Amino acid sequence: MGKKLAVLALLVVLCSVTGQAAGSLAVGFYDHTCPNAKKIVRGVVEVAMQQNLECSSTTASSWYLATYAHVSSGRVLQCRRSLDLYKACGFEAIDAAKEKLEEACPGTVSCADIVAFAARDASAVLSNGRVSFPMPGGRRDGRVSLSSAALQFLPPPSFNLSELTASFAAKGLDVDYLVVLSGAHSVGRAHCSAFTDRLAPGSNSTMNDALAASLRRHCPASPNATNDPTVNQDVVTPTSLDNQYYKNLLNGNVLASRSTNASVTQLALSSGLFEAKFAKAMVKMATIEVKTAPKGEITRFCRKVNGSPDIRVAARSKQQLHNSA
């Protein structure tokens, strides 16, 4: 898989979850009903990461966003529509995994669980095996999918620290979780429109002068829908999810402005601390407000709820993933 695929060392040890249930969720949920479920998802994830190195971090970032916003409520389809993530890389792999799972175990594995498992597997693949953890299963998919409802579950880039804290608190996540999960900014890309306000004269930005100068050369002064380039969120180790984000925070090499505290320094300087805390936080997110039986459903296609008008899902890249896995 190559060292360049080491993006997203996310979810390390999950000591307290192994062999236990989180509500109606459980590690090994499909052991009897679809024993190869995790193996199938992992195979598709590995192929997806190998086929397109450039978009590997986007793929993983898409899965992590979906985990935060919608896996917990069975709203995978909403996430894809409202955030346009389906045009990114990640969800073609979700379709491919779903298709293979329907062949092996029809009507058994939910799209919400597939996304959660994909986030777990991306962590292992992209960290060259340094990060491995059990993800509980048993989620169900929502029966209603309104793209307009999805954005309320994701904090926009414009949120300040107070607004982010409130957004996380609504999910039952405290400030420590906010600090740890912000480490996801170590991978993926950001549109210039998300941070150009920090590049304007008199913005009182804490951004490093050299980084600001580089971004001014790359980004238009007034980004719009037709001219809004993207840049790496982590300018030092852009293809690795590691604690570099916190080191960047300390020296101003970040796109977004966030207050720092003692936790940031600890995460920047302590080897392995970020990985362990991020693992716990990701699993925590994936077990919040879940839909479990008898609520929700197991959707046949991850792009539509059951009973809705048929949607053609056969994309060339999805078929390649399906055939290769």
Task: Quickly list its features.
single chain; 325 residues; mainly alpha; Peroxidase, domain 1; Peroxidase, domain 2; two-stranded antiparallel sheet; 3% strand; disordered N terminus
Characterise the protein shown here:
This protein has 325 residues and is mostly helical. The chain has two domains: 11-151 and 285-324, Peroxidase, domain 1; 175-278, Peroxidase, domain 2 (Orthogonal Bundle), CATH 1.10.420. The protein has twelve helices and four strands. The protein has helices spanning 37-51, 56-69, 76-83, 90-104, 111-126, 161-170, 175-181, 209-218, 244-251, 262-269, 273-285, 316-324; strands at 21-22, 25-26, 189-191, 230-232. The strands form two sheets. A two-stranded antiparallel ribbon has the order 1-2. The chain has a two-stranded antiparallel ribbon with strand order 3-4. A hairpin with a 2-residue loop joins strand 1 and strand 2. Helix 2 crosses helix 5 (111-126). The relative contact order is 0.20.
